[in-house]
Structures are given as C-alpha cells and as structure tokens.
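Its record is retained below.
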Amino acid sequence: MHIEFESLPREYVLAGGMLVDPEAKAPAPGEIHVRDGVIVEVGAAVGVSASVPRVDAGGVHIAPGFIDVHVHFREPGQEYKEDIESGCRAAVAGGFTGVVMMPNTDPPFDRASVVEAVLRRGREVGLCDVFAAGALTLGRAGEKLAEYFDLRTAGAVTLTDDGSPVSDTALMRRALEHAAMVGLVVTAHSEDKSLSRGGHMHEGYWSTHLGIPGIPAASEELGIARDLVLARETGAPIHVQHVSTRGGVDLIRLAKRDWGLDVTAETAPHYLELTDRELVGYSANYKMNPPLRSEPDRLAVLEAFADGTIDLLATDHAPHAEMEKDVEFDSAPFGVIGLETAFGVAHTQCVVGGRMTLTDLVRRMTLLPAQRFALPGGRLAAGTLANFALLDPSARWQVRTSTMQSRARNSPFVGRALRGRVAATIHRGHLVHRLATEAAVAAIG
C-alpha cells in the first residue's frame, strides 16, 4: 500500500527515524504508532497489524513538536504585520506545534472575550496549537490589574504585559500574589524604563562609535533584580523573559541556587549568536528590545542556556512591515522575527558548537516549556498528542527571505549559513509543513 505523506491516514506508524525523546539520554532508532492525532505506542518496534500503513521518515530525527512561549502574531489590530494564520505557517515551518501569543495587540488580551476570540481563531486555522497570555494590567497600562480569574477561565496560560514592564512596584507585587492565587505564572518583562527610555541599541563601545543612544545592561538587570525580590517576598512563581545580559544571568543563578525561588527564564536565538557589533550597517533588522548586547554578554547567555540557568528557548517573534523597518534607525520599531530560524540558530551555536547535546536542546524547546506552563505536548509517550518536528541535524542551509512563511521579513539572520533544519512538521497526526525543495520524508507500503 502506498501512502502519500501529504495525506496521512487516521492511523499509521511513523518509522525509519531516530527518536529524540526529551526524557531519554540520547536519540535512538524507534517507531511511533499514531491514531486519531494521538500517540498510541512508542518503541523500538511497535506492535501493529499488517494493515496499518507505515510511513518512512527517511532517516531524520523525530522530536516532539517545539513549543514557543513567546510570540507576537499582531491579531487583532495589526494584521498587516502578521495574523494568526501567517504566524502559524511560520511556526510550523520552524517545527513549532504550540505557540503562546503575547497580549500587546489592539485590543490587548486584557478581557476574557478577547482571549476567547484569539483561541477560537487559532483553532479555525488549525495548523498548530495557539495559546494566549493574558495581560497583567488593563490596557497594559500598568495602572490596574486585569481580572485574572476571568482570563484563566477563558484559557489564558500565563500573564504578562510583555513589551512594557509594570513600573509600579507595589502593583507588580500584587500581580504576583493574585496570579499565584489563580494558579498562573507571571511572565515578566523586566526593565527599568527610566534607564532604557530613549535608547535604541546596547550602550557600549558600538553605540558610542555609531552615535546611537544606548540602552544600558543595568536597565534589564535592575528590572530582573526587582522582580526576583518580589517573587521571593510573595513566594509566587515567576518566569523571566528574553534574558540578554551577563548580570541578568548572575541574578537568575543566585535566585535559583541561593534563594530557592520557583523561577524559570528564557532567552531568544538572536542573543545566542549576535552582538551589538552587527549594527555597524544601521540595519533595523538588528533592532530589538532587549537589544543585542556585547560579546561577553552573549557568551554568558550561551553558558547559562547550556547549564540550565536559562531554562527555555523562546523566539520573541516580533513581525513588522518592511515599510516600518526601512526608515532611519532611531525611528524604526523594536522587534525581529525568529520562528523559522530558531532551531537552526540554536543547533548551530549550542549543539554543533559543542555546548549541549541535541536531546538537551530539544528538551528546552519541548518538555520544559510544556511543563512550566501546563501545556499539552512536549513528549514522545503514549497518550500524548502526535505533534512532531522532523529534524535534519546535518543539513546546511542559508536563510533566505524567498522561502519564509511569515508575512514579515525582518529577520536578523538573512544570508547566514546555519547547520540543522526542520524537514517536516506534524500536528495532531497531520502533516502541516514539509520542505518544498527536499524529499524530507517518503512513504512506503
């Protein structure tokens, strides 16, 4: 029986690949029995009848679908930058089968009705699992707490005012307390705006050389320090977003090791590879918040990601229209896209670079985000969702805008050569992405 991979049946065995189980020590040959979008059995050789078709994965590595806990899809309000459908297409092109949308939309996710509408639209698109982060404050204005119980009931999986720190310390303390009461983790955008306001890149040698107002590392580090102290004071769990500085790493390590806090942290792929030196050409495709930092900062973040001080990789995928980025550097908005290049960048820096194993990297992109935010997926185990990222770790490729699925093109990695690529993505048993130019997988009977 010949099965076209593009039209997978309701039941099949995915075979002929190396399983990258985030709960195992190393990849191993194996098979996965899938029925109705759920894993039935995983093993070296699953026991099924001869009538169940087998789909050959062609020797690729099969991992759980990646989960990104920090994306901006701009819907509602700015769909010309990216909508949920185009964002999901970018996600699955990068191997992501679950994404958590940030609430800085128009209107923001500060009411149950908005959260419900976004989640409903995600289900309609159906390419990957779309989750929502509720806003910490009404209108993300930092003045009054949103209704956390209503947001959680509507389906919010975390709370954040991402893009804007909650500057009022007393209000942030209450936010942590109230979020813990309803069982949600606060995802903190930690920044001292009095130090970062007016800046456009990391404050250091290159900002002085280029004549661009700088954002000091202290703006991030003071924000992290305050939020960690509040977490210690309240006993509430906290997740620190987009860590980019050596001092921020030190603070998180202290909070985990000496304070024993329930704290997790994320960094983005661009902080693993790029530094402020990239801005010598004044390209706004290297402009994000927090900004690209110095080489010592980059190395500290890499080390922290490798040793587990930084728990998760999250893209902070922030699309903008070309006309918005193609302006004077100081006038351009912060933000870069990253879903389609995340695995390649992280694999190149961390695995090829010898800092961690492929299984370690997959764990940071699957199991750990699923556990932290109580999300489905992230495992290769019976009874879990049949969400898979099919990986080719040996692939060498160059990032090109012509193959991007995102509506936006503001990637800092265009033209870069990477090692390791997503060959195909399966969501709830269905093929949702496959490299158009490569026979990543083939069917056999």
